Amino acid sequence: MQSSGTSSQIQNIDTLFVSKINESYIKVKTNPSVAQELCDYFTFSVPGFQFMPAFREKLWDGKIRLYSVHDQRLYFGLLSYVQKFAQGRKYPCICQENVNNIHNITDGDLFDYIVSLKLPFDPHDYQFDAIRAGIIYKRMLLVSPTASGKSFIIYLLIRYLQDHLNKKKILLIVPTTSLTSQMYNDFGDYSINNGWSNRDNCHVVFAGQDKVSEKPIIISTWQSIYKLKEEYFSQYDAIFGDEAHGFKSKSLTNIMTKAINADYRIGSTGTLDGTQTHKLVLEGLFGRVFKSTTTKDLIDKNILSPFKIESLVLQYSDDICEAAKKLKYREELEYLITNKNRITFIKNLALTLNGNTLILFSLIKHGKSLFEAIKEGSNDKRRIFFIYGGTDAERREQFRGITEKSKNAIIIASYGVYSTGVNIRNLHNIIFASPSKSRIRNLQSIGRGLRKSATKEMATLYDISDDLSWKSKSNYTLNHFKIRIQMYNEESFPYKIRNLKFKG
Question: What is the pLDDT of residue 444?
Fold first, then answer.
């Protein structure tokens, strides 16, 4: 049966009709066959799903489906992927007028606005480009390396939204309590010459703090607010997620989907984990990836400190390697972190290095062993700090402040605490004491040592790995090291591999 109307009004049976449900979701309406195609297009296996209890108990097939055939909903930030899907299959795609809404601003107008803020320093070109993209497109997942000044970008975006777009309520969410304070203080530093007050404009939320305030900007950890109802989040006109990769996906989704009136959504991260699933979920919640610059570019432009990587491969005896060949991953890790000779090796390395040194570990008992050994070996000649998840934010900040003024302090810290959101400019050395294959964790950790300081000519990463290979079989943690080397190559990081005979 032919529908009524002119021929120009008659649509192809395979047409996709896109409309806005709210600022979190769009509806993609089409025929059942194309809808199933679209569902398949937005379906992905979760990395490591085969090890998850829900899969093992046959309660879940290990897949994430971002598009629902039933309700035809999709994250707003994936609109461009819908258009790409339709274009690739030559399906007509018709978008409701208010779906592709952008805000136009000229480079000159943005430049004049930034000048008017009388900032303590000028934004770099890559920061200016990120700010402009955020203003124009409203939705953006900013991928910018650690130490590239993401808080400065966020500040300028928020100021523009306040001053020119009448955004009365803005939510800035971060993964840690230390970052709430850090962001608050940074905003104060950036405003020192323009009369804008962080005290008057910003309310900080973390455990135990009031989540409601009349102030226009709320800075909160995601842990403090993600369980709140939609009524709370619907008040916001704009939402920012700093270090967005560090949010638990379900918690982040709870926040972002309930912020139904926030048309500006800016996420920022130093890196993504390399999986399509991770990227698309974050893009769906915030918007398309905008890659501002690279660590190598920032080093080449003298914005970040030069650095090198010393990859120290500990080679164990044949007897130990043969005995270790049957070890499972957890058993191998346990052997390494409890190995007294290995702990002594890291202690001696740390105590012989000049400058402030950060030692990163994964498990608390490993960190405690390192701390005790280094403390004993130093004979109270150096400031030594131990920081883990149980160390409160105030003490972390205290240790950070002391390190900034020290010349030979040693911080033994967990990856979880210090790989994200802690800025120590006066840091000369980093030691990877525990094996890790996490791209995000490794890149974020490297970034801790790249901020420039008056006392630093070169930052050095000491990447310790363990060769327990037997014949043709490589051990687990050595394979993790190979993944890190691949990452160093992809990022064009300079490194040298030194094989060291080791009595394990």
Answer: 79
The average confidence (pLDDT) of the chain is: 89
C-beta atoms surrounding 294 within 10 Å: 16
Enumerate the β-bridge partners of residue 29. Answer: 17
Token look-up 């303590």 returns 120
Domain co-membership, 321 together with 335: yes
Does residue 378 sit in the same domain as residue 258? no
274-315: per-residue pLDDT in tens? 666 678 889 999 999 999 998 889 989 988 888 899 999 999
Residues 360 and 245 in one domain: no
Last residue of a domain, one of 66, 95, 124: 95
37, 64, 95 — which closes off a domain? 95
* Residues 435 and 477 sit within 8 Å (Cβ to Cβ): yes
pLDDT exceeds 50 at position 8: no
- Number of residues that make up the chain: 504
Distance, in Å, from the CA atom of 171 to the CA atom of 110, rounded to the nearest integer, reads 23
Q: Where are the beta strands (DSSP E) in 186-271?
A: 202-205, 217-221, 238-241, 264-269
CA dihedral (296, 297, 303, 308) in degrees, to 10, reads 20
Q: Is the pLDDT of residue 427 over 90?
A: no
Type of residue found at 276: Q
Q: How far apart are the first and last CA of the chain?
A: 80
Residues 346-377: tens digit of each pLDDT? 999 999 999 889 999 999 999 999 999 999 99
DSSP-H helix ranges across 271-363: 276-285, 295-300, 318-324, 329-337, 340-352
Question: With bands split at pLDDT 50, 70 and 90, how would you rate the model's confidence at 7?
Answer: very low
Distance (Å, whole) CA 114 – CA 476: 51
Can you read off the two tokens belonging to residue 51?
């090890």
Whether residue 282 sits in one domain with residue 305: no
Residue 345: both structure tokens together: 């090796």
Using an 8 Å Cβ cutoff, are 172 and 220 in contact? yes
**Separation CA 444–CA 416 (nearest Å):** 10
**Range of the structural domain that residue 182 is part of:** 107-293
Q: Please count the structural domains in the chain.
A: 3
Nearest to 427 by CA among 462, 391, 388: 462
Judged against a pLDDT cut of 70, whether residue 423 lies above it is answered with: no
